[in-house]
Amino acid sequence: MKHKKLIVSILVFLTVFIIYITCNDKRMNYIALGDSLAIGENPYGKVDYGYADYIANYLDRNNLLKFYTKGFAESGDKIQDLLDDINNNKTIQIDDKIINIKASLRESDLVTISIGANDFIAGFTLNNIIDNLGQNDLKSKVDQILPKLNEVFKEVRKYAKNEIIVLGYYNPLPRLTEGQYDKEIDELFAYADKQYQKLCDKYKIKYLSVYESFKNHDDYLPNPINIHPNTKGYEVMSNKVIDYLEKNVIN
Asked: What is the pTM of this model?
């Protein structure tokens, strides 16, 4: 009888312990979605160490990472591409396992998104985008992508119930403008930030602006004919996310 009680006590203890360990596992499933910024494309067209990798490395160093992938992101993706990926339940292979985007979002603790830049620059060249800086065309271009952006945020939030962070735009043309359109550029990015912020608030998504972090830092964009940052620029972007996580999520 005593042995039976002891066995029952041990089983109860183990059950409680397992539940405790499971419920107190603070490690995160991290999914990076979006375009070339999400995968870490460098200023010379190669996939390198991007902001998502810095974030994953930070989580891993602090024993906070369970799973990470940027495999659903793709260079050149527009908002509709990400929407199609979700609606079609895109699959990727990691090692020997096939995973799909909907299940990955459902199981996610952290999702970061960089999307919309390719929609914004569609139809522009390096020259005519500068020519339009003094006009309202670029603000209207922001307005045009908002309805589709609303759809993609709605779909991501449908599956991802935990932390979602959207990263904003930086000025990709600092050398070409040479300070001629500082006022216009400031107004454009302030407008884009405001519109993105409104949509993110609607779906309880955190929006992080990176415009000011890149301003006056041409060294983050060393190739004047390529819009992608170097690893230092990506690290600056990652620090925005990490700072937010440390203050609001990780405790």
From this structure: 0.87
Strand partners, 163: 110
Helix (H) or strand (E) holding 9: helix 2-23
For residue 85, being part of any structural domain is answered with yes
* Lowest mean per-residue pLDDT among 73-82, 142-151, 180-189: 180-189
When divided into structural domains, the chain yields a total of 1
Here the CATH number for the domain that contains residue 141 is 3.40.50.1110
Gap between the Cα atoms of 49 and 233, Å rounded: 11
Domain assignment present for 12: no
Specify if 99 maps to a domain.
yes
pLDDT above 90: residue 32: yes
The Cα 152–Cα 159 span in angstroms is 11
Please identify which residue in the block is written with the tokens 């060249």.
125
Per-residue confidence (pLDDT) for residue 22, from 0 to 100: 43
